[in-house]
Amino acid sequence: MPEIRSAILRPLIVKANSSICTVVSILLFCFSVAYARTGTGTPSGDAPVKTTDFTASVADRTPFNNEATGSWGGVRDGLAGRGISLSGSIVLEGFNNFMGGVRSGEVVGASTIDLSVGLDAEKLLGIAGGELYADLEDHAGQDPSNAIAGDLQVFDKLNSPPYLQLFEFWYQQLLFNGALRVKVGKIDANSEFSVVDYGLPFLSSSTQVSPTVFLFPTTPDPMPAVNLFFTPSRSFYTSVGAFYGNRSDRFGDFIGNPEFNQLSRYGGFFIIESGFSWRSSFISPFAGNLKVGAWGHDGTFLRLDNTMQTGTGGIYAIIDQTIFGHNSSRPIRTFLEYGLTQQTINPVYEHYGAGFTWTGLLASRPADIAGLTAQYAAIGPEAGLRYDYELAFETFYTLKAFRWGSIMPDLQYIVHPGGTYRNALVATVHLSVHL
Fold first, then answer.
1. Which of 75, 159, 187, 230 has the fewest C-beta atoms under 10 angstroms from its C-beta?
2. What pTM was estimated for this model as a whole?
3. Is 435 helix (H, G, I), strand (E, B) or coil?
4. How far apart are CA 266 and CA 230, in angstroms?
């Protein structure tokens, strides 16, 4: 049965020694806790219809008082004023599975380094509403889902064999006073589609996108694409995307084989999504949003019964809702997810998810975030696995130790990981630093 999971989720398993990353993560965790002070960051407000770091204007990414390297003696501010924004981040993670899963009692680690540049076309070329963006990403270490947990839902959203790649490289243009946005290039689909706004603080991949969208061109390998976004009002949008999503694409891949996350050698991934937001509703006096989408792929796939199939697809829905503290610095937010696909190719064919976060759980630390989620993945009989579902619970506390960084202890209890293994209990220490 492990062969089925490997063929579906991670066809290529690359081992890497990541003990240094683990040690550094733990040391920095202890240091940050010892010197933690009241969080100085400002908690974000209610999320709009869709949330993405990549669609904000270059000017909105300055100043740099929340970056560890600061403004470089004013050089960074000067470049930003001319339309050139430089940024980066480092994520260090240490994982330990205390019981069950593939292997317990072994600590593994991983690191992810991002360096990005954004160019404001209006400031540089006089083209209003244009932006060019490039992001170089290096990921090292072991894939903890393969190494210790064996889960189908992928308990850490950065899980992947090692790679070095031009993670994103795109140009976008606003037209008709912002009502239409066109984006072309190598794009992370999850920065634009199936964005679970209030699930973003969690580690589980299922809180980012339903595991039923199993061909989604996101981490570890975004794909070349053309995206169109129609936003006639602040409360409604419709988006469509066409991605060259298959194993034949290696654009921007320097080290590793992240394209093997795709299951078809040829074909494309297509998606459409619509959504609307509200400031209040009959359900709640607070803000929220609803998103529904459908996707398809026209490639040829190996079915779970070892026959071939051309084409597949599915649907998904997301609700984000603030339930307390609309105008407060300590809001409580919740989300619901649903996903459905065919049972013939992917072991997980149906998915339900729910969770909530509380920003400022402790009044003395208004920038810290705590959260709890449950993610249920139904496994089809065609997969031939021992169990017919996988259920994952996750809880975390993000400690905003510094303006430029945070420490996140995370604990996940996974029932029937991979539909095969004994229940697992996985702890993660996640350190994030904005450069």
1. 75
2. 0.84
3. coil
4. 29
**Rounded Cα distance, 52 and 44, in Å:** 13
Residue 255 Cα distances to 140, 167, 179, angstroms? 11, 12, 39
Cα–Cα distance, 255 to 138 (Å, whole number)? 9
Domain 2-434 is classified in which CATH homologous superfamily? Answer: Carbohydrate-selective porin OprB (2.40.160.180)
CA atoms of 199 and 338, how far apart (whole Å): 13
pLDDT tens digit sequence for 254-295: 999 998 889 999 999 999 999 999 987 776 788 999 999 999
389, 347 in Cβ contact below 8 A? Answer: no
CB distance 197 to 335 below 8 Å: yes
For the chain, the domains span 2-434
What span, in angstroms and rounded, lies between the C-alpha atoms of 90 and 434?
7
Distance CA 331, CA 33 (A): 24
**What is the SS3 assignment for 109?**
strand
Distance from C-alpha of 414 to C-alpha of 156, rounded to nearest angstrom = 12
CB atoms within 10 A of CB 209: 25
Q: What is the pLDDT of residues 51-77, one digit of tens each?
A: 333 333 333 444 567 889 998 988 998
Q: 38: helix, coil or strand?
A: coil
Mean pLDDT score across all residues of the chain: 86
- pLDDT, position 326: 62
Contact between residue 127 and residue 136 where contact means Cβ atoms under 8 Å apart: no
- d(CA 229, CA 221) in angstroms, rounded, equals 22
Nearest to 336 by CA among 199, 184, 150, 145: 199
Secondary structure of 290-328 in HEC code, one letter for each residue: EEEEEEEEEEEEECCCCCEEEEEEEEEEEEEEEEECCCC
Exposure letters 160-198 (e unless 16+ CB within 10 A, then b)? bbbbbbbbbbbebebeeeeeebebebbbbbbbbbbbbbb
Both tokens of residue 18? 């990541």
CA 183 to chain centre: 19
Of the candidate ranges 43-52, 106-115, 242-251, the one whose mean pLDDT is the lowest: 43-52
- How far is C-alpha 421 from the chain's CA centre? 25
Computed on alpha carbons and rounded to an integer, the radius of gyration of the chain in Å comes to: 21
Mean pLDDT to the nearest integer, 344-355: 97
